[in-house]
Amino acid sequence: MFDEEKPVPKGEIKLGEDLYDFSVEDLTERLSSLKDEIIRVQKAQDDKRVGLDAAAAIFGKS
Known about the structure:
1 helix, mainly alpha
């Protein structure tokens, strides 16, 4: 058996991956996906912050 990396499925993003072989269209799609993911993570963070703030208002901060 060879110690080859498994190919990354199309659409899956591997952080730190070499971008040399990507086309301009692939890079544009990748950038769009990353921006969408940033928005999703920011919303989750905001939702958690709202929950923490509500708990702090009820129970006080430690």
